[in-house]
Amino acid sequence: MTSLPVEHDGHRQNAPVGGSLVYLLMNLPLGIAGFTVLFTLLVTGVGTVIVWVGLPIAAIAILVARGAAKVERARVYALLDTYIPLPYLPLPVGSQKLRWTARLKDGSTWRDIGYFFVLFPLGIIEFTLVVTFWSTSLALAGLPIYFRFLPEGAYHFPAWNVRWLTVDSTVEALPWAALGVLFIALSIALTRAMGGFHARLATAMLGPTVAQRRRMENAWEDADEMSRV
Prior knowledge:
By secondary structure, this protein is mainly alpha-helical. It is about 70% helix and about 5% strand. α1 (about 15-45) packs across α6 (about 170-205).
């Protein structure tokens, strides 16, 4: 029997910090792009389907979603060290109508589209948390170094014209640097946790379900038997 390319998937329990950081920062622009393109194509396709112009536009949306999902699986593997097998059922041999009907009936097609709709709001949350935690951590940890280069040679909290707290010496900056180191540890833990969560989400939405695995095995068995006839 033909071996399936979906049998050897793997997932690290702890996502790499560097890869997770890059991945989470990329999610916002990619989420915006994916949502905008797919939403525009789908709305245009559905809105013009009555005059038949919408059919090729909707077909383009499906192909774009599948192509983008393949790129996303590669990105998850490269940055989060999680392999997501392809979930698509093999297309039947025959006319284009049969092949497109199979694509439309394949639940993976719609989960690909749903993933990019989810990536948009989720990317906003992930980007905001990552930037907030890491910028705060690094700002506090580096305070003993850069405070002397600020206006008046001092750091004023919360703002230059609202001086609730003034740091103008290395000794005064050291406790805040220690707090920054603690925040760096929290930022690392948060980054890894969000990276691991997103890897599991991507696996659930972009990978095959248990039922799909069984259907794919049966489909490959049928194709293998047909090739022997």
